[in-house]
Write a structure and sequence with these properties.
Elements: H1 2-8, H2 10-17, E1 21-25, E2 28-37, E3 43-51, E4 66-70, E5 86-95, E6 98-105, H3 115-133, H4 159-163, H5 167-170, E7 177-181, H6 186-194, E8 201-205, H7 212-215, H8 224-229, H9 233-241, E9 248-251, E10 268-271, H10 276-288, E11 293-303, E12 306-316, H11 347-364, E13 376-380, E14 385-389
Parallel strand pairs: 7-8, 7-10, 8-9, 10-11
Antiparallel strand pairs: 1-2, 2-3, 3-4, 4-6, 5-6, 11-12, 12-13, 13-14
Helix pairs in contact: 1-2, 2-3, 6-11
Length: 393
């Protein structure tokens, strides 16, 4: 992937063709073997690290003028720190294997037009002092850089995480196997959200077809030909999200007594189905198997031509699962049993229900800060308020 991006990007290709040691790692541009002087006037070699703004499989204009540095602070020929690039002194891990020591700032009037201009300008500033001592010193080694075979579940680089410097945070949920049971409304939005994370596998469970009414409460915009194809939901969503994520795995069947134990192989499960009987069967197996999960529910009523109701997100884990019972979740399939049996679904409410569920999953693994440690939340539409209950003790 690294060499492909370099070959498709004129600025990166120019850096490589002119002999700079260029590679792409975890969505960052890495330029090694940059000569500099330290405070003892010793010649050293450091590494420049820049964010990468991408447009598909090639670079776009850099988002800013900041660049990071791995090494000691570069000094002038007298051993004094170069002031014109000084910005921030902070040893920080950007991603696995990328630990920076400084951030530099040198901003042209109109910013940098591309990464060639940005990198070369910083090298000119940093490497001028050692070159004044020995003019043969250069960052242009023409060394052949082997392409690192980075295992990634994405079909293109996650430049969003590197751009925001949250690769280290994102790695907390890396390599998980996740299942989504039910793709009617909220489950489809759960898929939309988690497909943008580096989890190892996303397993989809649903035996229904993707029908026309589903298009009005699902992410994206299905075409007429999509609807005419009468695909199963798992097939339709695999077609959509495999454009981005490599490991979308489909299961075109319900979870029943005969197969429920296959869920024990997952790291986390999202349950997005209506059937109370099915839920009870799944809950029992997951709780006994210490598999964390989130169950979602939505109950909407038409009250004098205004929709009202609430959304529910209930979490279970090894730390707390004694609250998961029929007092807060209906395990009956009687249509008159609860508000959750009303089949009014609205796209933005499905999306919000899914968002709360995904946030809870990320909190469970330390991606988001969690001060409440609640395991049951109700969002009340009319009052626009959230009720949190059953906190971890």
């Amino acid at each position: 992937m690294s060499h492909k991006l370099i070959n498709h990007s004129a600025d990166l290709k120019k850096l490589r063709d002119q002999g700079y040691e260029v590679e792409i790692t975890s969505g960052y541009l890495i330029v090694s073997h940059v000569p500099y002087l330290n405070c003892k006037r010793e010649i050293k070699y450091g590494t420049l690290v820049s964010e990468l703004t991408l447009a598909g499989d090639k670079t776009a204009k850099p988002k800013d003028h900041i660049i990071h540095f791995i090494g000691e602070y570069p000094c002038d020929k007298n051993g004094v720190e170069i002031p014109q690039i000084k910005n921030q002194c902070q040893t920080k891990t950007l991603a696995e294997g990328i630990v920076i020591n400084y951030s530099f700032s040198n901003k042209p009037k109109n910013g940098y037009s591309d990464y060639f201009e940005k990198v070369v300008r910083y090298i000119e500033i940093i490497s001028a002092p050692p070159r004044s001592i020995d003019h043969t010193i250069t960052a242009q080694t023409y060394k052949v850089i082997k392409d690192k075979e980075e295992s990634t579940v994405f079909k293109y680089i996650d430049s969003n995480s590197s751009r925001a410097d949250i690769i280290k945070v994102t790695e907390k949920i890396k390599d998980q196997k996740i299942a989504i049971i039910g793709l009617g409304g909220s489950g489809a939005y759960v898929l939309d959200f988690i497909a943008k994370t580096p989890i190892a596998e996303i397993h989809l469970y649903d035996d229904d077809k993707f029908n026309q009414h589903n298009a009005f409460r699902s992410p994206g915009a299905a075409s007429i030909s999509d609807l005419e194809d009468q695909l199963l939901k798992v097939e339709y969503y695999e077609n959509v999200y495999s454009n981005m994520h490599r490991n979308i795995i489909t299961h075109a069947y319900k979870i029943e007594e005969s197969n429920v134990e296959e869920l024990l192989g997952f790291d986390f499960i999202f349950i997005c189905i209506d059937s109370g009987i099915e839920k009870k069967r799944i809950f029992d197996v997951l709780i006994n198997g210490s598999i964390p999960f989130v169950d979602v529910g939505m109950g909407i009523e038409n009250n004098d031509d205004k929709l009202t109701g609430m959304l529910r997100v209930t979490a279970s884990s090894e730390q707390k699962n004694d609250h998961v019972n029929n007092k807060i979740i209906s395990f009956s399939d009687n249509d008159n049993d609860a508000i959750y049996k009303k089949n009014i679904q609205i796209a933005e409410l499905n999306a919000l229900n899914a968002a709360y569920a995904v946030i809870k999953w990320k909190k469970h693994f330390g991606f988001f800060d969690d001060q409440e440690h609640e395991n049951h939340s109700l969002y009340v539409i009319a009052g626009n308020n959230v009720i949190n209950e059953f906190h971890n003790t």
